[in-house]
C-alpha cells in the first residue's frame, strides 16, 4: 500500500553510517546487519539517533552494484571512526511517499515515486556518466520495521528522492 506522494523541504541533516557496495539482489542480506553495527557504536559512544534507521542509495552501475549507506540521523555532526562515518542529507526539496508492506515488494514504492515525479514535471537530482547513475539522495527510512513489528503488512517505510531545485 502506498500513500499519496508529496514534496517536502528538508533542512540539512547529519547522520552516522557505514558505506557498502552491494548487488541489488543482496541488499536484504548485506545492509540490515550494518544498522546493528551503527546502533551499537552509537550506544557505546552515548550518541542518540534523532530518527529511524535508513538505507541511502547513492549510485548504481551497469552491473547492478549499488553504493549504499546504512545508518541513523543525528542532531549534531560527530565524527565516527574508520568504519562508521559522518555524512549529511543536503538541504532541499524531496519527493516522498510512505510504503506499507513487506520489504520484498518495496520496489513498487520506488517505481510509483519515479512515475509521480515524471508526471508532475519534476526532476530528480541525478547524474549519469560512464555507466554509473548517481542520485542526489534516494533514501528509505524504516518507520516501522521487523525489529518492532513482526507482521510485514504493518511495516512502513518512507521513501524519499532528492529533487532538482
UniProtKB/TrEMBL annotation:
Coiled coil segments of this chain: none
Signal sequence region: none
Gene3D superfamilies, A to Z: Regulatory factor, effector binding domain (3.20.80.10)
Residue ranges annotated for the AraC effector-binding domain, each copy included: 3-164
SMART domains listed in its UniProt record: AraC_E_bind
InterPro entries: AraC_E-bd, GyrI-like, Reg_factor_effector_dom_sf
Protein name: GyrI-like domain-containing protein
Organism in which the protein naturally occurs: Xanthocytophaga flava
Amino acid at each position: 500500500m502506498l500513500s499519496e506522494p508529496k514534496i517536502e523541504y528538508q533542512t540539512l541533516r547529519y547522520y552516522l553510517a557505514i558505506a557498502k557496495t552491494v548487488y541489488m539482489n543482496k541488499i536484504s542480506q548485506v545492509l540490515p546487519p550494518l544498522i546493528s553495527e551503527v546502533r551499537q557504536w552509537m550506544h557505546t559512544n552515548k550518541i542518540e539517533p534523532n530518527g529511524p534507521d535508513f538505507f541511502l542509495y547513492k549510485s548504481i552501475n551497469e552491473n547492478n552494484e549499488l553504493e549504499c549507506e546504512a545508518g541513523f540521523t543525528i542532531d549534531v555532526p560527530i565524527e565516527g571512526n574508520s568504519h562508521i562515518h559522518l555524512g549529511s542529507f543536503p538541504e532541499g526539496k524531496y519527493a516522498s511517499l510512505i510504503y506499507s508492506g513487506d520489504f520484498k515488494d518495496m520496489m513498487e514504492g520506488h517505481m510509483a515515486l519515479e512515475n509521480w515525479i515524471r508526471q508532475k514535471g519534476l526532476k530528480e537530482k541525478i547524474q549519469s556518466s560512464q555507466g554509473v547513475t548517481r542520485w542526489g539522495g534516494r533514501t528509505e527510512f524504516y518507520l516501522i520495521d521487523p525489529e518492532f513489528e513482526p507482521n510485514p503488512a504493518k511495516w512502513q517505510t518512507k521513501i524519499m528522492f532528492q529533487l532538482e531545485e
